[in-house]
Amino acid sequence: MKDPEIIALFFERSEQAITELINKYGTAVRKVTSNILKDVQDAEECANDTYLTVWNRIPPTSPKYLGAFVCRIARNLSLTRYYANTAQKRNSYYDVALDELEDTIPALSTVESVYDAKELTGYLNQFLKELSKEDRYLFLRRYWYGDGVNEIAQNLGMKPRRVSGRLFRLRQKLQNYLQNEGMIV
Q1: Are 177 and 123 in contact (CB under 8 A)?
Q2: Residue 146 confidence (pLDDT)
C-alpha cells in the first residue's frame, strides 16, 4: 500500500492504518529502536509507542514522507528511553556514536537553543544534500540509525577500518562546513 493511502486510513481513523503501517515500515522501526536500545523489550515497547504516537499525530499532521516521519518518531522515543536507562551510566553502545559527533556539532545549552537547533538542522540538511549518495548513507546509518561500524562495513562490502576513516573525514568536513556557516564549533 502506498503512503498516501495509509495516511488516508489514518484520517478515516481506520485501525487498518496501523496494520498497513507496520507491514510497510515495521522493519525500519524495529531496526531504529533496536540499534539505539539493545534491550529487546525496550525496543519492542518503543516500537509500539511509535505506532501509538503516529496514530495520535495523524490527523492533524499529514506527513510528506511517511517513512521518515515514522522513523523520526521511533528514534526520538528510543533516545528518550535510552537516556532514561543510562542516566547514571556512560560508555554504552550508542554513546560511542554520539561521542564521535561531540566535537563536531556545537552544544546547544543557551536560551537561544530552539533557534540554534533549527538553524543547525538547516545546515545539517544542506550538508547532507551536498554529500555523495554513499557518504550520506554512511553518515545517516551511523549517526541517525545508530548502526555499528562493522555492520555498515558489511552492508557496503568494505573493511571496518575504511568505514571508520571515511566517517572521520565526514565529521571533519561537517565541522569545516559548520564553521564556514558561522556556527561556533
Answers
A1: yes
A2: 81
Q: Choose among 119, 137, 118: nearest CA to 128.
A: 137
CATH number for the region 3-85 comes to 1.10.1740.10
Could you give the residue range(s) of every CATH 1.10.1740.10 domain in the chain? Answer: 3-85
pLDDT digits (tens, 9 = 90+) for 51-95: 999 999 998 889 999 998 999 999 999 988 988 887 655 545 555
Q: Which of 122, 47, 109 is nearest to 77 (CA)?
A: 47
Q: How far apart are CA 68 and CA 59, in angstroms?
A: 17
* Residue labelled with grid coordinates 558489511: 154
The class that CATH gives domain 93-180 is: mainly alpha
pTM for this structure?
A: 0.62
C-beta neighbour count of 88 within 10 angstroms: 5
